[in-house]
Design brief:
- Strands 8-10-7-11-9-12 form a 6-stranded mixed beta sheet, sandwiched between helices. A 4-stranded mixed beta sheet has the order 3-6-4-5.
- The protein is globular.
- It is built from 10 helices and 12 strands.
- The chain has 2 domains: 140 residues, 60s Ribosomal Protein L30, Chain: A (2-Layer Sandwich), CATH 3.30.1330.10; 143 residues, Phosphoribosyl-aminoimidazole Synthetase, Chain A, domain 2 (Alpha-Beta Complex).
- The protein is α+β, with helices and mostly antiparallel strands and 322 residues long.
- It binds magnesium ion.
- The site of magnesium ion has 4 residues, from helix 2.
- Keywords: ATP-binding, Kinase, Magnesium, Metal-binding, Nucleotide-binding, Thiamine biosynthesis, Transferase.
């Protein structure tokens, strides 16, 4: 199969027209027009065979996740998603049907969030990988950053935590495996929080680690009550009788939920906005003075997890962690 056939098969299912696409796939560059008066937000992330996915993933899940993890970064900053570009690396002899299925997964995620695939590239490589650039926009005053949290802000977490990590275990419940394979970026919630939150981050590496990033950027600490962490029914079942029931919810990666710091006077509005969107949003702690990120167990004692969080460079990380 030639490079051009491969690109055609891979990109055929994806939406190509969309808001602000002046010229899409097919020329040397895409020509894109951001909404008037808004800032452009850009992010890039790669998913690599053997590191982020393996043979247990359906090809469609690989394509979906490659885009979804980028959209989660746009969600964390309150952006409206607009466009994506995809650089595909393909091993010699890869099954074209499998590649087409990867493309369909990416297309499904793009359609769900109303964005256009505006460009791409393909190269040979030793393993399959997709490097996706996602672009979005937001009004200048509504960009959510990591560095705006202030002591006293309430920490709110969307959805449920730990599902994606638990979804890696052999025989994991379907609901948990789905969270691992088809993450659902919280774009609408991110935009709703734009005018309300003082800081926000998406949870790709686990709450403990990502909250640490937010606090370091903001020059604050935080106190989280572990008993408040929102758990799905499937996670509760999976964790019943676990030696450490907090490890997955506090440190498990890839949930792609949002963690926002919201000033106390705006918490009711944030919770009401989430209710309108039918997305759970749960207060789990507060931003504090100092630099310590303290996780408090049910007895009030400080909890120190056996591992800090999800490490994307750790070897063999596709071996089930729980
Ligand atoms: Mg992020």
């Amino acid at each position: 199969m030639t490079e051009f056939e491969l690109i055609r098969r891979f990109t055929a299912p994806a939406p190509r027209r969309g808001t602000g696409v002046v010229l899409g796939i097919g020329d040397d560059c895409a020509v894109l027009r951001p909404p008037p008066g808004e800032l452009l937000l850009a992010t890039v992330d790669a998913v690599v065979e053997g590191v982020h996915f393996d043979a247990r993933f359906a090809p469609g899940d690989v394509g979906w996740k490659a885009l979804a993890v980028n959209l989660s970064d746009l969600a964390a900053m309150g952006a409206r998603p607009l466009w994506a570009l995809c650089a595909l690396a393909v091993p010699e002899g890869a099954d074209p049907r499998r590649l087409a299925a990867v493309g369909r997964g990416l297309a499904a995620c793009a359609r769900r969030h109303g964005i256009a695939l505006a460009g791409g590239n393909v190269t040979r490589a030793r393993e399959l990988s997709l490097t996706v650039t996602a672009l979005g926009s937001a009004p200048a005053g509504r960009v959510l950053r990591r560095d705006g949290a202030r002591p006293g802000d309430v920490l709110l977490v969307s959805g449920t935590l730990g599902d994606a990590a638990l979804g890696l275990a052999p025989g994991a419940a379907a609901a948990l495996a789905r969270r691992q394979r088809r993450p659902d970026p919280r774009l609408a919630l991110g935009r709703a929080l734009g005018p309300l939150a003082s800081a926000c981050i998406d949870l790709s590496d686990g709450l403990a680690q990502d909250l640490g990033h937010l606090c370091r950027a903001s020059g604050t600490g935080a106190r989280v009550e572990l008993s408040r962490l929102p758990l799905s029914p499937a996670a509760r079942r999976a964790l019943a009788g676990a030696a450490d029931p907090f490890l997955a919810p506090a440190t498990g990666g890839e949930d792609y939920e949002l963690c926002a710091a919201v000033p106390p006077g705006r918490v009711a509005r944030a919770l009401a906005a989430a209710r309108r969107l039918r997305i759970p949003l749960t207060p789990v702690g507060v931003v504090t003075r100092g630099r310590a990120v303290v996780l408090e167990g049910p007895s009030g004692a400080r909890y120190r997890p056996a591992r800090a969080g999800h490490d994307h460079l750790a070897p063999h990380r596709r071996k089930p962690a729980f």
